[in-house]
Amino acid sequence: SVVGLDLAGAEGIVPLKNFVPIFDRAKELQIPFTCHAGDSQGPDTVLDALDFGTKRIGHGHHIFDDKGLCKRAIKDGVTLEVCPASNIQCQTQPSYEEHPAKQLLDMGMNITINTDIMILSGIDLDIEYGHCLKEMGFTKEDIIKMLHNSADAAFVTEEVRKELHEKIDAMK
What we know:
Elements: E1 5-7, H1 20-28, E2 33-37, H2 43-52, E3 56-59, H3 67-76, E4 79-82, H4 84-89, H5 101-106, E5 110-113, H6 118-121, H7 125-134, H8 140-153, H9 158-170
Parallel strand pairs: 1-2, 2-3, 3-4, 4-5
Helix pairs in contact: 8-9
């Protein structure tokens, strides 16, 4: 069965608005979805993704450039799947120190830390968390919070979600 839909890939080649029928169909079938937005393009693609009704956005870090959009995403309970190493490697953010992920978390955004194209980037989650702790200003408590955000945003049953939260709590 299908548990979720993801639209990923290079932003700006095909406007996100062209995918409205796909997301409308996913909503009709009650299939959760995530959309790549706000990475190589600005917050306008995040607006499109929010207008689709997505609750998860791949990357999304350029939402920081539009505080009104940040407020809307927080109110709507949207989760951003942030990939710091990819953002640095692809030059969509200038450095780990200047990456807005910590500021987004502090303002109440549901942030998760993720890898992107692991085989090409040589990055795994341990390395991502290392950058978070050493260069981006995150604390261990922030990492735990973001793990909980990941469990909350996962396309899984409530039973599996509860198990994930229990495993995360056991790490404290």
